[in-house]
Amino acid sequence: MSHQRTQATVEVPKGPHSVSLKVLRLSRPSLSYQYPLPQGGPEPDISPKAALSYPAGNTDDQFILSPLLTLPPAFGSAYVGETFSCTLCANNELSDDRDARLISSVRIAAEMQTPSQTIPLDLTLAEDDASKSGLSTGQSLQKIVRFDLKEEGNHVLAVSVSYSETSISVEDNSAASGRVRTFRKLYQFIAQPCLSVRTKASDLPPSEIEDEAADPSGKAQLLRFALEAQLENMADGAITLEAVSLSPKPPFKSTSINWDVARNDLEKAELPILGQRDVMQVAFLLEQQKGDEEGGEAVRRDLSKNGRAVLGQLSIQWRSAMGDPGFLSTGWLSTRRR
């Protein structure tokens, strides 16, 4: 005959949480658009300034951008190379007409789940009083999280909130009971590429220098390569390229033959601007350094054995239309297989 087992634990009713969590993305505003009425036709029945977002006498009525700033209406896009920032708000949702309860010891923890790993996040605390003394009715605890996006694909921001909920006796204003409650929420987004980088390495004729110890001819040959890269803007808006550099691998030295070759004191207006889907090509000259014969021989062995040799890494810095910085570094770039 079967017997039912008695449960030794007592289930405590969970009920709704007294603390809610709000996650708000931090992003810079953008200039709002206005659409002026066309000129040159018959006079409209309404004022031409009616179509402007900010009618004023000191603004250009025919310019599509207005001096007003607008906040993004939605989450927006997240791009690889930029910093993802958001604020985490734990709010006390208790109302005054409910039983007296005290919320204290509020803790917020977060981690980012990337396509390859899970990374605990360091949170910046705006105010430290709320987490120690407790959250009064309507008060919130805010923390800021910043994370550099380095991988494409799905990202999940996992946020855990824990707090102590203490019931206060109405008669003597003492603690009647208490418990520790926790909950966890997941926020998923996709990191998209901001820049598409396509590279190509070409062999150049070696340069000859005078070196009596090299061979009977008294000349030594130094390897040379040309590295080209096409940069395509995959973002929704325009970006400004601040710097494109190549970190060569020994025994090579790199020489830029791009827009920064003329002079080094470039002004902001002279930096290249890439609109949506615009493509720009950059190039670098890699030459074997003089006096590094061992490194040159190692490169030749790699070419003969593996058919390719490692040249260096490409680093790109840019800013969005409103000044958000971005940085991208490629892996080790090599020559084409022979």
Description of the structure:
- The chain is mainly β and about 350 residues long.
- Helices cover about 5% and strands about 50% of the residues.
- The chain contains 2 helices and 20 strands.
- The strands form 5 sheets. It has a 5-stranded mixed beta sheet with strand order 4-11-10-6-7. Strands 14, 16, 18, 19 and 20 form a 5-stranded antiparallel beta sheet that branches. Strands 1-5-9-8 form a 4-stranded antiparallel beta sheet, with no helix packed on it.
- The longest helix is centred in the last third of the chain and has 13 residues, at about 295-305.
- The relative contact order is 0.14.
What is this structure's SSE topology?
Layout: E1 19-25, E2 30-33, E3 65-70, E4 78-80, E5 83-92, E6 101-113, E7 118-120, E8 123-125, H1 129-133, E9 140-148, E10 153-168, E11 175-193, E12 195-210, E13 219-233, E14 239-248, E15 252-256, E16 273-274, E17 279-288, H2 293-305, E18 310-320, E19 325-329, E20 333-334
Parallel strand pairs: 4-11
Antiparallel strand pairs: 1-5, 2-3, 5-9, 6-7, 6-10, 8-9, 10-11, 12-13, 13-17, 14-16, 14-18, 15-17, 18-19, 18-20
